[in-house]
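Progress narrative, work stream C.
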Amino acid sequence: MAAPENMWQCQTVNCGYIYDPDRGDRKGKIPPGTAFEDLPDDWRCPICRATKKCFRPLAGPGSTQEASCEK
C-alpha cells in the first residue's frame, strides 16, 4: 500500500473512493504504479464518476476533509 501522501480520496458526498497508485484502477484500465498526477485528464472516479478535481490527498499539502465538488 502506498504512503498516505500518494493516495487520493474522492470528496463527493457518499463516495470516499481512495485511489491507491500501488493498485491502479482496473475498471479504468490504469495499471498499478500510476501516480495520481499521471492519470489522464479525463479519468473519473470508478464509483461516482467525479472528475480528478474532486480528489484530495489523504495527507500532506492540499489535504482536506471538507471539499465540495460537482460531478
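Work stream C, second folded protein:
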Amino acid sequence: MTAQRAKACPEQPLAELLGVSTGRGVPPLQNVTFSLRPGEAWLISGPNGGGKSTFLKLLRGELSPTQGKRSYFLGGQPRTSAVRAMKALALVSPEQEAFYLTRDWVQTVADVLLSGYSGDTLRLWEASPEAAARLAEVSAQVGLQALLERDFRTLSHGQRRRTLLGRALMPRPDALLLDEFTDGLSVTARGELRGVLESVAAKGVAVVLVTHRPEEAPQLAWKHAHIAAGKLIVDAPPPALPRRPAAFELTAPAQEKGRVLVQLEQAEVYRNGHHALGPITWTWREGQHWLVTGENGCGKSTLARLVAGEFHPALGGGVARPFLRRDLLSERQQHIGLLGAELAIRQRRDWSGREVIGSAFGGTEGFAHPLSAEQQEQVEGLAERLGAADLLSRSAETLSQGQLRRLLLGRALIHQPKLLIVDEGLDFLDVAARKEVLALLGEMMAGGTHLLVIAHREEDAPVGMTHHLKLEAGRVVGLFSTP
C-alpha cells in the first residue's frame, strides 16, 4: 500500500484477529487478538517453539483459525477470505527457501522473482512488459542484477534471503512479514537490506518482523509483541539487546607444527556449472579451531561441504584427510560432524526428533535404521544435554526452525567427531539456546573435538577459537591466529 492509500483509510486495519485460536502448531495459538494497520512496524519476540511462525501464517491466511474472527481490509474493501491477503501480505520465511531448494528443476533468480509478481509459487508464464519492468526495478532495489540467471539452488544462504525479499516486493504488497530475516546475512548485506526495508516502510508498507536478534532490526518506529506458549502479548516491553563481546585479537599465523587433519591443495568447486570456490590451498592441523568469515556468496558453505566430503574438488585440485584410517564416506560420517542450512532443508519432515538424531548412526537422510538400545540411550542423553528431550517424539514438521536446529546439532555430535563443522549453527536459536549451544561447543573443544565455525557474527563462535580464515569471491584473502 502506498503512503497515499495509507492516509486514505488509516482507521481500517489491513488484517485483524479477534480472539483467534488454531488447531495446528505445537503449541497452538490461543485467543489471539491483534490488528495490523497500514504503515505500522511490529517486532515480534519470543522463545523457540512459542508460536511466532505460526502467527505469521495465521495473519497472512496460510492457516485458518478454529475459533474467533479473522478479517482483512484490502483494496478498499472489507474481506473475510484470505485469497487476496496471500498476495497483499507478502512473507519471507525459511520454508519458502526450502521449497525452492528442493525442486528438481532449475529455477533462476529471475524465475523466483517473477513468480512473486503474480502470487504463484512457480513461474508458469512468460513475463509481460509490466512484469519485466518490475523485475528490473526490484532486482536493482535489492542488489540482484548480477544473479538473475543463476540457479537459485547454487546461491549462498544470504543470497537466497535477498532473493526471497525481492520476490516479496514484486507485487507491491501492503505489508511484509519477515521470519528471522537477518539470519544468514553478512554484515554488509544486513546494512544494505536494512536500508531497503526502511525505504519500503517510509512509503507506507507495514512490516512485521519475527526475530531473535532485535539489535539487527531496521530503524523503524517499532511496536512490540511477545509470543510464548501459544499466547500473544501486544504492547510488550522491547526485548533486551545483547551486549556484544570484544572482537577477536588476530595476528599473522606463526609456523604451525601440529599433525595435519585436512589439507586442501589448489582445490576448486563448481556447483551446477557455477564456479563456487577456489583455487584454495589451506591446512587444518591438530590444536586449531577455525573461524571462517566472508560476505554472502564468497564460498564459506561450499568450503564446509568440501572439507566434510559432500563436495569434491575439480580436476587438478586435491583434498586429503590424513587423520582418517581410510578416506571413505562411512569413515567421514563417523569422524566429521556437519551442521548447516542445507542439512536442515534435506531432512524428512515426517521424521520424529529421535529419527533426526538417530539417522546419524546410518549416515542417512532419506530413511533411518532401527536404533539399538545403546543407540537409543545415546540419543536420549544427548537430547537432554541440548534441552531437546521433549522434541524426540515430535514430528519434525511441527518443530520451529530453532528446535530443528538443536536436533541437527545432536545429529552432528552423536559420534563425538574429531572434526565438527558448524555453518551458521546459531541461526534461528533464541538467546537462551545460543548460550547453551556455545557452552556445549566449548565442552566439545575441551574434549578433543576440532571446531570450524562459519559465522557472520563473532559472538556466534565459542571462546577458544585459535585461527581465522577470511574468504572473498571464493579465495582466501586472510589467514590469522589469536595471540
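The first strand starts at residue 15 and ends at 21. No further action is required on this item.
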